[in-house]
Amino acid sequence: MTKPENLKSCLKPNTKLVWIETPTNPLLKIADIKALSEVAHQQQGVHVIVDNTFASPYFQRPLDLGADMVLHSISKYINGHTDVIMGAVMTSNEALAEQIGFLQNSIGTVPSPFDCYMVNRGVKTLHLRMREHQKNALAVAKALEKNPRVTKVLHPGLESHPQHELAKSQMKGFSGMITFYIKGGVKEATKFLQSVKIFCLAESLGGYESLCEHPAIMTHASVPAEHREALGISDSLIRLSVGIEDLDDLLNDIEQALAAAVQM
User: Fold this and answer.
1) Which of 8, 109, 210, 241 is a good FRET partner for 203, with 20 to 30 A between their CA atoms?
2) Which ranges constitute the DSSP H helices of the chain?
3) What whole-number distance in Å separates Cα of residue 264 and Cα of residue 259?
4) Which H helix or E strand runs over 201?
C-alpha cells in the first residue's frame, strides 16, 4: 500500500473493497490515500475504506482525500479515556450510508446509550488531547533518536521517517504513536518494559495515559515469526502510545528505563 502504482495489478474482477491503514500498526508506514483511491476507483464498483484510528479525525480526513469510508476504533483517540469499547464507520456516500444503516438495524450492532454518552464526553476534548499527544510524542521521538541505546525510531513527524513528506501532505499533525528498536533483543526489550514507571504495559493506545508494549510477543504474537521478521517486527521493536502527562516526567521515565535495560 505504500506504492500506489502496484495496486492496479492486485485488483481482481471480483474486488469490491480496498482496505487501507495509515499510519500502519506498528511500523507507522504511510499510505497515499489520494493516489490509492484514484487507482481503486478506476475499477467500477470498488470502494476504499481507511482505518484512521492511529491518526484520529483531528489530524487526518480520508474522506476529503477520496476515500469512500473511514473506520475508527472509537475506544482509542476519539474516546480518549480507555473506558469504552466501540468502533464506527463513517461515509459521505448516501448510498453506502443507507446500506450500512440497514445492516446496523437488522444485525443489531449498536452501542449502548451509556457508551455513547461516554464517547460524547471524550470527543469534546479531542482537539486538546491530540495537540498534547503530538507535542509529547515528537519530543519523546527526538529524545529516542539521540539515545545510544536505541538503534532506530519510527514516527511520521520525524524528518528521518522515510515518508515524512507524504505524511505532511495528507495529515495536519501526528498522534502519540511511536515505535523504536532498542539495542539488543527480547531480553533488553523486556527489561525496558519492566523498568518504566509512568508508561504502563498494555496493548491498547490513544488514551490520556502513556502505554508501552512489545508487538512480537503481544499485539502481533499470532503472526508467524518469519513473517514478523520480514515485516520488520523484530524482538527489539517496542511500541509506545505517548499520553498527555507532564513531558519531563515522560522523558525521564524513558531515559531511566533504557539505562536499566541496556548496559553501555
Assistant:
1) 109
2) 7-10, 33-40, 56-59, 94-107, 113-123, 126-146, 164-170, 186-195, 225-231, 247-261
3) 8
4) strand 200-201
Which pLDDT score is estimated for 233?
95
Strands 200-201 and 211-213: parallel
Q: Name the pairing type of β-strands 17-21 and 47-51.
A: parallel
Residues 218, 190 contacting (CB under 8 angstroms): no
Statement: the pTM of the whole predicted model exceeds 0.85: yes
Count of other CB atoms within 10 angstroms of residue 100: 15
Question: pLDDT at position 105, please?
Answer: 92
Give me the chain's average pLDDT, please. 96
Grid coordinates given for 47:
470502494
Rounded CA-CA distance 231/183 in Å is: 18
- Report the alpha-carbon distance of residue 111 to residue 126 in Å, rounded: 20
CA 97 to chain centre: 25
- Please write the tens of the pLDDT for every residue from 33-62: 999 999 999 999 999 999 999 999 999 999
